[in-house]
Design brief:
By secondary structure, the chain is mainly alpha-helical. It has helices at 15-19, 37-48, 53-69, and strands spanning 88-89, 105-106, 116-117, 120-121.
């Protein structure tokens, strides 16, 4: 059987991507029904650890198993390009959160003169 679907992480933790191949999750998040005792043991160890080099090492071992057994095939990866003017403060794209605009501000001291009128931001005149 072949099928595909789109999906992204809901939080910035790699566990989201490893849980979908954990054997006991077959028929739930593990839609490939992959069940490899070696993978499961590494996942169970990693699940107990905080974000750390030790957990990263376990994830790299799991990556090797993923590529060796290929229980699923990632076929696409989204690439996002963001541009910002130099007067925009706080612009940092987060790989998970899409509401980054809540953290933006304008540094009026850096704005080009044609955008500033009487000390406040104004739109450039139409030509």
């Amino acid at each position: 059987m072949m099928w595909s679907l789109g999906w992204i992480a809901g939080d910035p933790d790699a566990d989201t991507f490893y849980t979908i191949l954990y054997g006991p999750n077959k028929g739930q998040s593990n839609q490939s029904r992959f069940d490899l005792p070696q993978w499961n043991a590494l996942y169970e160890k990693a699940k107990l650890l905080p974000d750390s080099p030790e957990r990263d090492h376990l994830y790299r071992e799991m990556d090797k198993l993923f590529f060796a057994y290929a229980p699923m095939r990632p076929i696409a990866h989204r690439v996002v390009t963001g541009l910002a003017h130099p007067w925009v403060i706080g612009y940092r794209r987060n790989p998970v959160t899409r509401e980054f605009w809540k953290y933006l501000d304008i540094d009026e001291s850096v704005l080009p003169a044609q955008h500033v009128r009487a000390g406040r931001v104004a739109a450039a005149p139409a030509r």
